[in-house]
Amino acid sequence: MTHLAPRTAPRRVVVISTGGTIASRWQGTGYAADASGGEVLAQAAVPDGVTVEVVDLFNVNSSSMTSARQLTLLRAVHEALADAGVAGVVVTHGTDTLEESAFFVDLHHDDPRPVVFTGAQRPLGAADGDGPGNVYDALQVAATVRDMGVLVVFDGTVHAARGTVKTRTLDPHPFADPSGPLVGRLGFGRVDIDRRPERPEALPVPTGTGALPRVDIVMHHCDADPLLLDAAVAAGARGIVLVATGAGNATPQFAEAIAAAVDRGVLVALTTRVHSGPVAEIYTGGGAVDLVAAGAVLTGTLRAGQARIAVLAALLADAAPRQQGALLRRLLGTPDLGQGQESASAA
């Protein structure tokens, strides 16, 4: 199966540079992003028939990514695609939080033209650098595919933004969807697409200019209690992701804390620390059965970083508080059974 643009389609690609390892150089004690997008592009070949325009948006290690920067990136992508002559967009990004930024853009992307995230595991100018090849592949994908949403292109593979996470810290093939198949592959000058990612209806780009909502992540472990969850609520969190064990299990104390948080209007999502597979209502005694009854929303196969992005997007959307739970379920692709969050206060 392929979803390629006609050969007569425009081939102008906008590259938005945000920093990361692909733009990093030695600083005396370690590597940090400091190279411009133009310097990054100068290292890479450009596919035949493709022209490139570079936007230097910001230049940070992706461990310093923030929700505010992701919102700036989203708006920059939409601004680039406002030009009908643009065939697609490539975003160069650090790998640490690429999965979160790509998913955030994907939740708000309603254009048939692709947005392709890529980066590198080795710094700019390294003899064995992977950045130039990844940029070439990303440009090729951005100039040819259509109706695929936001993609992650790395080491000759094409992934959907949704579900794709960094699974290896240093390997040149760092990204995978542990619960789903590849979208496609590249090689010998070809882009081979095998499937179209399933995506919910896109959200409008947020228009607000005020402070962004706080969304925290709390992990369950053998000796965990709700102290950190309660602290997040006390700190003003409007959303919380609980990273549970197994198929989404914690303790009765966590169920009580979630119920109290939901009563205060906090949006709570439930994921797992397990590598792959869905969260599911199987166990009581503080398991997912009780956590969902308390108001938590199951995240399907999405893990903590992307679950947090879904909660953030639901909070940023122009929806009444009582509708945010249903919206979150739609973004996560989980059934809306009319439970949990809709019982929250309208505060």
Automatic annotation (TrEMBL):
GO MF entries: asparaginase activity
Broadest EC class assigned to this enzyme: hydrolase
Residue ranges occupied by any Asparaginase/glutaminase C-terminal domain in the UniProt entry: 214-319
Residues the record lists as binding substrate: 62, 95-96
Ranges where the L-asparaginase N-terminal domain occurs: 12-197
Swiss-Prot/TrEMBL keywords: Hydrolase
CDD domains to which the protein is assigned, alphabetical: L-asparaginase_II (cd08964)
Catalysed transformations (reactions): L-asparagine + H2O = L-aspartate + NH4(+)
Keyword Hydrolase belongs to the record: yes
A GO BP annotation: asparagine metabolic process
Catalytic activity, EC: 3.5.1.1
Domain of life: Bacteria
Active-site residues, as the UniProt record annotates them: 21, 95
Pfam families the record matches: Asparaginase, Asparaginase_C
Membership in a protein family: Belongs to the asparaginase 1 family.
Record protein name field: asparaginase
Organism: Streptomyces spectabilis
